[in-house]
Amino acid sequence: MSQRRANPHGSMLPNDEVMPYSDDETDDELDESEESEEEEQEEAPDHPPEDTARAPEIGWKVKVNDRAYHQLPEFQKKVFLCIKKSRYSGNAIKTYKYNAFTFLPLNLYEQFKRVANIYFLALLILQIIPEISTLPWYTTLIPLVIVLGITAIKDLVDDLARHRMDKEVNNRKCDVLLDGRFKETKWMDIQVGDIVRIKKNEFIPADILLLSSSNPNSLCYVETAELDGETNLKFRMGLRATDERLQEENQLARFDALIECEEPNNRLDKFTGMMLWDDERYPLELDNMLLRGCKVRNTDYSHGVVIFAGADTKIMRNGGKTRFKRTKIDELMNYMVYTIFALLVLVAAGLAVGHTFWYEQIGSKAWYLNDGKGYNASYRGFLSFWGYIIVLNTMVPISLYVSVEVIRLGQSKFINWDLQMYYAEKDTAAKARTTTLNEQLGQIQYIFSDKTGTLTQNIMQFKKCTIAGRSYGEPTTKEGVKLEKIKPVDWGWNNLADKKFDFVDHLLVELIKSKKDKDTLEFFKLLSLCHTVMVEKNDGELVYQAASPDEGALVTAARNFGYVFLSRTQDTITISEMGHEKTYEMLGLLDFNSDRKRMSIILKFPDGRIRLYCKGADTVIYERLSPNSRHRDTTQTALDLFANETLRTLCLCYKDISISEFEAWSRKHKEAQVVMVNREEALDRVYEEIEKDLMLIGATAIEDKLQEGVPETISKLAKANIKIWVLTGDKKETAENIGYSCSLLTDDMQIHYGEDVNTKLRTRQEKRRNEPPSSFRPGKKKPAELFFPGSGKNALIITGGWLNEILCEQKKKRRRLRLRRLGKRQTPSNPQDPMNDWEKEMRQIDFVDMACECEAVICCRVTPKQKANVVSLVKKYKKAVTLSIGDGANDVNMIKTADIGVGISGQEGMQAVMSSDYAFAQFRYLQRLLLVHGRWSYIRMCKFLRFFFFKNFAFTLIHFWYSFFSGYSSQVAYEDWFITLYNLAYSSLPVLLVGLLDQDVNDRLSLKFPKLYLPGQQGLLFNYKKFFISLFHGIFVSLTLFFIPYGAFLQTMGQDGEAPSDYQSFAVVTASSLIFTVNLQISLDTSYWTFVSCFAVLGSIAIYFGVMFDIHSAGIHVIFPSVFTFTGAASNALRQPYLWLTIILTVGISLLPVVCIQFLHKTIWPSVGDKVQRNRRKYEMQLEEEEKKTKPSAFQRGRASRRSAYAFSHTPGYANLISSGQSIRRRTTTHGGNQDGRPPARRRAENI
């Protein structure tokens, strides 16, 4: 639930620190939030107040160790007609689409959704009808079967991979309690209510309620990398009652509790339920749950009961709906098929009318044309219409779709084979998991990126610090002299040091070893004591388990500098101070939370002194410093420098406390601990009393390590006019800090937060309401004025709570729930309502417009559903091509929603990869995927389609011109076999190779000049304009190809005194001219020549002549006299020099305008690509020189920044474990009783 806070005017505003979940909010959450808000005006006046406070209905019941219970009729749901099945899902998962029975019908159904396939099927049916068939039926059937077959095989291969993946997951083994004993069982056979045993380093098979574990107090550590990409451990804990009484196998076998809880949902941060056992009720929450996809760590075994299985688990619920993705070019091609079909019908209708009039005036009167059928002119015109539909169908040849699939497959393989996208450290290559979206990679306008594990490595490293006004961390010698060459510190003097820890300032190490600088010693003592880290020994090595990587980095730094955290109990903490072990009594642990932004520990020293150590954000620490505190200004200067270097900072301070002062404060603290109402606020007030008059020691600076090349990648993509939005569940400070670190945010940007955004949107909304009603109507474009006038750069940082507030999601949910409780149906929106559907849509449009005006957008504390909603808004209102990139299960919904989904592989979590379209190991490979492979794929596909349409218009429209001289009789202008083989063998290979291999500039220049990417974003290379240019080009060429040979044949005499002006010789000359023209035309359009390209052009012409002479030979005519009828036509026609001159003239006139236009374009109106091509040699030399030079450091210091660099990612939790001793106390030998003096389970349940 999104907690809310009051603004100065008293209204309730979203809490920036809390992650809202508007997608699956339960009634009880909304009831709680409604208590502090006014009811909306539309609520019924007679609504009884007790209804709003009614507890939510709990509909999910789980009976432990009772499989038959879940099959009862009350838990059955209707599947189809009278067929019912249990509402409880089995644990088998299914991501595949087909099985052996459904593959053929489903695949054919999906393929015939494509308009072109239906079109070709209709043509095939027409060709079977003898009265209208002008071409043999096999000329359409064979290509159609080949196309459907190739596509079906590709789909089958993809689906078999999904089957294998599902089988691998479903056949994993786990111990399940069956018939009183644990038996090894497949995951797919696990059912709701089963008790399972999970061992160390095993994945959790379902959403499980933790009962007991091998650790004290049933503590269980889990790694959630599959869910959120984070590798730091989180803890879960069983109930005390189950911990004490459910350790042994026989105890677990007798366990018969009934669990009632919330319905399955996608909320990863919440679980509410209740367990009824032995007439006692025990509350359940998320800390008691082990979620599917997590991995058990540092726990030998855990026992749990399955609550949600298979498709009901939270990780599967977060997967989102799988969407069928299509490229913009696919959509354009569909519309163009409609356009061509409309043109085809119009042309065929016109020719049919022409045939009707021709037959009435000429055909019916010519005795030699009488076929004896007795059809009248109108019926003959009707038959002619269908005949021309068949003859002219090659304007959209079926080979187009085969070629497109081949090109896409080839482009996918090039991505897979790209060694520059191979990550050797993890042995991970780039993987194109789809073959249908490659050209869309060249049209991306918006990138939506996760942060943790995508931009960052989620590895924190202690880089610098300032102690008593002096900064450390630059490369220096022991004497403090700066070094040009970095020399890491040798930690050989410290046996307990972490050898992986890197530090370059030798002076600080010498100060520590000398033990002369008291401030330095106190600094690292504070780091080793003030934390909530847990420690364990593994093969004699200390292993720290921190609630956040920040904490781990600071304690590791103290460890290397001689202050080693060794162990802790409930009320003591032991460290090694420069080799001497010391134990301090812990009097209080004031844990971190998002409002306090600090944590403190109160310790009693061995000599009796009481001291408070505190670390936190500079903004909260400086407010609480004593007037006598030194080094304030110098520390602030250092903090500004650290902030400018995008390091994450914490200030360290201390305070000595007298015994009487501590005793007085301790009494207040104990009173606050037992307050029943607003306990957290009461504790915060008590903490405030002790955390004042602090003495500043210094500050730490941690680097949240970015993945290699992230700032350069973001910079390159920004130059390509691609906008990057970061969508993360992290805190606002952390997300903002990473924004600066990766160069997404810069110091010259004006940053706008949720409050500013909401104010601007409300102002725009009020202005719209005051406009006349006719001024704004649904569907009307946005107002012309900008939200941010001026030339300055703007950035938007907004939290999930504000996102809900701005998009009115929470209000919609509350209203729907209230109406449901009243038993009313939601009525259509009234235009007079304060926020009706139209106003809500306009507000969403305003938000998207405002965000798109910004240079950078960061959405933090957002849920997986909100991530997907943001992507959907941009797709919906900007009609933009979007790409989402992430690495965890919380990114899956976003990845599936975007036009292109990219998963980061090579990390621990692979959920995002399994749902993605493309996968690779590092964010930096994204620039190569888009600027090289994406751009090339787009250019190649556009060039291929333009040329394919042109060559088929030129080929087909010759039939149209010929019809004027054949009585509009559906007579074809070529030989049948030429029509069959034209797109298959004579003209396919050169254009196919252009679609596979062509490139205007090489990969290095593509990366050097990101502006080359712009034509793809704007769709300049293939659109309706280009389509009609190809159409008119085809019309011009077809006119030339028909009428020049026609004029040459008219009243002509050959050298031997014979007239070569027969139909067959004319067909040969026209076909030969066409083959020369289209193959030379594609040569003019080829930018990148290889031996293969040259061979394809010459080979296609050679194949044409070779095949033509064969099928025109007398030998084949003798064998198949009715099939091969052009006997000797080629040899007779092509031995005439006059006809060769005709072919040369026809080809020359066809190509001359294209040569002239290309020359003018490249010289007078050159594109960016033309300019780069022209100076290619110069730019390549520049690149070689740049590579020879020494690479500059990744960070370049800019102007000093006054912003806070605080970005601590710690979450509260471990402090409660430590102070309660639950993670430390030893388990008693007997679990059934309470020999250790703890209160019985009944009392524990009542207290909760």
TrEMBL record:
<dbReference type="GO" id="GO:0007030">
    <property type="term" value="P:Golgi organization"/>
</dbReference>
<feature type="transmembrane region" description="Helical">
    <location>
        <begin position="135"/>
        <end position="157"/>
    </location>
</feature>
<keyword id="KW-0067">ATP-binding</keyword>
<dbReference type="GO" id="GO:0016887">
    <property type="term" value="F:ATP hydrolysis activity"/>
</dbReference>
<feature type="binding site">
    <location>
        <position position="730"/>
    </location>
    <ligand>
        <name>ATP</name>
    </ligand>
</feature>
<keyword id="KW-0547">Nucleotide-binding</keyword>
<keyword id="KW-0460">Magnesium</keyword>
<dbReference type="GO" id="GO:0000287">
    <property type="term" value="F:magnesium ion binding"/>
</dbReference>
<feature type="transmembrane region" description="Helical">
    <location>
        <begin position="1088"/>
        <end position="1107"/>
    </location>
</feature>
<feature type="binding site">
    <location>
        <position position="450"/>
    </location>
    <ligand>
        <name>Mg(2+)</name>
    </ligand>
</feature>
<feature type="binding site">
    <location>
        <position position="592"/>
    </location>
    <ligand>
        <name>ATP</name>
    </ligand>
</feature>
<feature type="binding site">
    <location>
        <position position="867"/>
    </location>
    <ligand>
        <name>ATP</name>
    </ligand>
</feature>
<feature type="binding site">
    <location>
        <position position="728"/>
    </location>
    <ligand>
        <name>ATP</name>
    </ligand>
</feature>
<dbReference type="InterPro" id="IPR023298">
    <property type="entry name" value="ATPase_P-typ_TM_dom_sf"/>
</dbReference>
<feature type="region of interest" description="Disordered">
    <location>
        <begin position="818"/>
        <end position="837"/>
    </location>
</feature>
<dbReference type="GO" id="GO:0140326">
    <property type="term" value="F:ATPase-coupled intramembrane lipid transporter activity"/>
</dbReference>
<dbReference type="InterPro" id="IPR001757">
    <property type="entry name" value="P_typ_ATPase"/>
</dbReference>
<feature type="binding site">
    <location>
        <position position="452"/>
    </location>
    <ligand>
        <name>ATP</name>
    </ligand>
</feature>
<feature type="domain" description="P-type ATPase C-terminal">
    <location>
        <begin position="913"/>
        <end position="1167"/>
    </location>
</feature>
<feature type="binding site">
    <location>
        <position position="729"/>
    </location>
    <ligand>
        <name>ATP</name>
    </ligand>
</feature>
<feature type="domain" description="P-type ATPase N-terminal">
    <location>
        <begin position="63"/>
        <end position="141"/>
    </location>
</feature>
<feature type="transmembrane region" description="Helical">
    <location>
        <begin position="1138"/>
        <end position="1160"/>
    </location>
</feature>
<keyword id="KW-0812">Transmembrane</keyword>
<dbReference type="InterPro" id="IPR023214">
    <property type="entry name" value="HAD_sf"/>
</dbReference>
<dbReference type="InterPro" id="IPR059000">
    <property type="entry name" value="ATPase_P-type_domA"/>
</dbReference>
<feature type="binding site">
    <location>
        <position position="648"/>
    </location>
    <ligand>
        <name>ATP</name>
    </ligand>
</feature>
<feature type="binding site">
    <location>
        <position position="891"/>
    </location>
    <ligand>
        <name>ATP</name>
    </ligand>
</feature>
<dbReference type="GO" id="GO:0005524">
    <property type="term" value="F:ATP binding"/>
</dbReference>
<feature type="transmembrane region" description="Helical">
    <location>
        <begin position="977"/>
        <end position="997"/>
    </location>
</feature>
<feature type="region of interest" description="Disordered">
    <location>
        <begin position="758"/>
        <end position="784"/>
    </location>
</feature>
<dbReference type="GO" id="GO:0005802">
    <property type="term" value="C:trans-Golgi network"/>
</dbReference>
<dbReference type="InterPro" id="IPR018303">
    <property type="entry name" value="ATPase_P-typ_P_site"/>
</dbReference>
<dbReference type="GO" id="GO:0005886">
    <property type="term" value="C:plasma membrane"/>
</dbReference>
<feature type="transmembrane region" description="Helical">
    <location>
        <begin position="335"/>
        <end position="358"/>
    </location>
</feature>
<feature type="binding site">
    <location>
        <position position="887"/>
    </location>
    <ligand>
        <name>Mg(2+)</name>
    </ligand>
</feature>
<comment type="similarity">
    <text>Belongs to the cation transport ATPase (P-type) (TC 3.A.3) family. Type IV subfamily.</text>
</comment>
<dbReference type="InterPro" id="IPR032630">
    <property type="entry name" value="P_typ_ATPase_c"/>
</dbReference>
<protein>
    <recommendedName>
        <fullName>Phospholipid-transporting ATPase</fullName>
        <ecNumber>7.6.2.1</ecNumber>
    </recommendedName>
</protein>
<dbReference type="Pfam" id="PF13246">
    <property type="entry name" value="Cation_ATPase"/>
</dbReference>
<feature type="region of interest" description="Disordered">
    <location>
        <begin position="1213"/>
        <end position="1248"/>
    </location>
</feature>
<feature type="binding site">
    <location>
        <position position="551"/>
    </location>
    <ligand>
        <name>ATP</name>
    </ligand>
</feature>
<feature type="region of interest" description="Disordered">
    <location>
        <begin position="1"/>
        <end position="55"/>
    </location>
</feature>
